[in-house]
Amino acid sequence: MKKRTIFLMAGVATLYFNNAYAQETPQDSTRSASIEQVVITGNSNPKKKIESSTAISTFSAKEIQKQNPISAAALLQRVPGFAVETSGGEVGNNLFARGIPSAGAYEFVQVQEDGLPVFEDGALQFANADNFFRVDNSVSRLEALRGGSGSIYATNSPGGLINFITKEGGNDFKGTAKLETSTYGLMRADLNVGGALVQDKLFFNVGGFYRTDDGIRKTGFKANNGGQIRMNLKYGFDKGYAKVYYKKLDDRNTFFLPIPLLQDGDKLKGFQGFDPNYGTYSYRGISQLNIPQAGGGFFSRNLEDGIHPKVDVLGAEFKYDLGSNISVINKTRYTDINMNYTGIFPAGGPKNAAEWATDAVKDGGLGMSNYQYSLVSNGAVVNPAYVQKLGFWAIDKQMNNFVNDLQFSYKFDKGNVTAGFYKSNWKSHQYWNWSNILATATDRPELLNLVNPDLDPTDIGYSKTYNGVMDMTFLQRDTQTQGSLNDLYVNLDYNVTDALSFNGGIRYSHDFYKGNFANTTNANLNNSGLTTDGTHSFATTTADDNMSVLGGKYTYWNYNIDKVSYTLATNYKINRENAVYARFSHGFRSPNEEAYYNYFSSSNQTQPLESVTTNQLEVGYKYYSRNFDVAVIPFYSTLKNLSFTDIFSDGTSENTFANTQNYGVEIEGFARLFNNVLEVTFNGTIQNPKYKNLEAGSLLEGNTVRRMPKFYFNISPAVNITKSWRAYVSMNYYGKRFQDEMNVQTLPSFTEVGAGMSYQLGKIRFAVDGTNIFNTIGITEGDPRAGSPSGEGIIMARPIMGAAARASITLDF
Fold first, then answer.
1. I need a surface site. Which of 272, 337, 691, 696 has the fewest CB within 10 A?
2. Sign of CA dihedral 107, 113, 116, 118
3. Cβ–Cβ under 8 Å, residues 366 and 442
4. For strand 628-644 and strand 656-673, is the pairing parallel, antiparallel, or unpaired?
């Protein structure tokens, strides 16, 4: 590990000294002046940040380029109030807004492209919103809103809005091309071009990327492979414009899950035979699954396909000035997604091979009188110290979403009023087929067979496995969920004086959800006539004893929502550079996909199925100037009827309910010092999220909300060594958390440091970016499928990626 860190630091230093005397040309600052920035997200009309009564962070294309985030989640770490877990890889990560707990994903925020959702619900099962979005050079800017008016302008977004705004063409032909490589086999090409087909009338923009790499964690195969393309045409006329666009995403990404570590209080180190920074159970040696089904046929899956979404998006946007200060804008989009999802989910932690085989069943063992392990690959008898039971989870999802947002706006002397109708229909049809496999507890795992040598191979129960599979298709699901959203909203901006403004908004949601799921039964292959090896029947193995079989009977359900969300705010602009504001907002989050399944598949529906409601109060002070920005935003929030829906390794789902309370402060700033030699960007959050107002006697009352740090921040100083030469260091600090709501397992705090340099030669930019350069072991979560482990000794947890470096060349033309 030390050698890798030295290599990264030496690579950065070498690039510097090789170019220290190169030609000096001006290099853009990493940040444009916030005092001039205009925001559109969460506002009825574009307005300057200092005049917006919202907590909003903005990132221009240049800022995104110079941060060079390895994923969308890594970029969102720069937003205060968003606690982001980036350890899943490029996709499948988790974001928690202002201490609002969830099972993960993007459950209480909405991720948007150009003001419409990437998909209506960003927290469907195994369908995190970032699965369907990639950051590339076709992004013009990012606007990230916390709390505030999010519930007025989008559904299921009381935590905020994340709006990626894409580039459009202009009269001048412009483009950006980028090539990138890395220490982990990355080859990536980005291209974006835009211009005019007809001057002042018809404009185009086309952009996208293609990328392949081996992954920072060593999988033994191409961990990431694929790309996306975006294109749009915009026609401008005297009273408005019309735009059409298309996006195609076809990308394959490995999803990384918990690995074994050794924990001693706040100290972490690697488990024997497992590199904590580069190891993974998602390895080539266990990547193939091919098993017979109780209903006939075989089920085959390849782990190398990973999370593989195929996304097609077609959309249009139209704006027209109707006269008399009235304008109309309509945005519409259709999204079609076909996704195969394959991942290795550990079923608990490593087990001592001998004890696990021979211990009594009541003590967590298999109760074997004798045991023998052998490698599936070559049949060699082995004696591993530890073995690992792993879930081989395969999910297929077919999803589609039609959304239309029709909005009318009327401007008057003192402000404007906006009214809109939002319509969205979406469908998620999914099929699950899960098995458990047995492997060595190492970072290059091998499949194992386990037999009782005291028995004859023809005896019943001789083997616990079938080609390394312990539980063949132990879980199947065939479910469908549909949403039909019909929302009306009104927003008023009123300028009491030139300095004092008022904002109020209300949204009425009349939403319908329905779905169905197939009932299942259990079966085995004992009388199927099939054999395990061409000779012995399936009676000789227990691997098929509890196979899940889809039945012909379906359960149908429906659920309706009538909810009102609202917000009130005021902003006082003290002078050109200073402003204060206050806002109260009330919003909700409809039950998620797993919550519906839990409720309607249960025979004991004692806890009613309800939407999660939130109340938030925030006040803020903003100072924006040419050389210094700061925003300080204290906030308070409450949440009711939260349903935890983590899925455990046996296929059952957590069904815990809670209320929470949180208060905290978000800080965000930027400073340009010493005649632009030093630039410092910083953000941080201090909060105290607690479980509150629960039933009398609840063991959770007053506990800290799980997986939520009380303190986290990012600071990134940069030095403009010359006009062309720039170096930066980035430090992410993530405070101590608890993995579980009982506050039993501690997740220690950690600091991740990145560094890089860039050199601008005319229109060409050379850059080297290093991530986690000190190879820190930092865990973002434990094992949410393992209940409440003690947090001492052998634990399962998901660490951040090990040290890596990327080098890139970018040409602007």
1. 696
2. negative
3. no
4. antiparallel
Secondary structure E strands in 303-461: 307-323, 326-346, 351-352, 372-375, 381-382, 386-412, 415-440, 448-451
Q: Which two tokens stand for residue 650?
A: 């046996």
Q: How many CA atoms lie less than 13 Å away from 206 in the CB half-sphere? A: 3
Contacts of residue 579, defined as CB under 8 A and 6 or more positions apart, other chains included, come to 50, 51, 571, 572, 573, 621, 622
Q: How many helices (H) and strands (E) does the chain have?
A: 6, 46
pLDDT digits (tens, 9 = 90+) for 38-81: 888 988 788 888 999 999 999 999 999 989 999 999 999 999 99
Instruction: Measure the CA–CA gap between 588 and 487, rounded to whole angstroms.
Output: 13
Element (H, E) at 176: strand 174-182
What three-state secondary structure class fits 66? helix
Query: Do 64 and 139 contact (CB within 8 A), yes or no?
Result: yes
Read off the tokens for 548. Answer: 């899940």
For the chain, give the number of residues.
813
Distance of CA 188 to the CA centre of its chain: 21
CA dist., res. 438 & res. 69, Å (int): 36
Strand 160-166 and strand 109-113: the pairing is parallel
- Name residues whose C-beta falls within 8 Å of residue 690's C-beta, 6 or more positions apart in sequence: 660, 661, 662, 702, 703, 704, 705
pLDDT 10s digits, 196-220: 999 999 999 999 999 999 999 999 9
Tokens of 168: 């459009």
303 DSSP 8-state letter: G
Tell me how far the alpha carbon of residue 9 is from its chain's centroid.
29
Single-letter residue type at 558: N
pTM greater than 0.85: yes
**What gap in Å lies between CA 115 and CA 422, rounded to an integer?**
12
Task: Please spell the DSSP secondary structure of 686-698, one letter per residue.
Answer: EE--EE-S-STT-
| Helix (H) / strand (E) containing 17 | helix 2-19
Strand residues in 647-724 grouped as ranges (E): 656-673, 678-687, 690-691, 711-720
Phi, psi (5° rounding) for residue 31?
-145, 135
DSSP characters for 471-487?
EEEEEEEEEEEEEEEEE
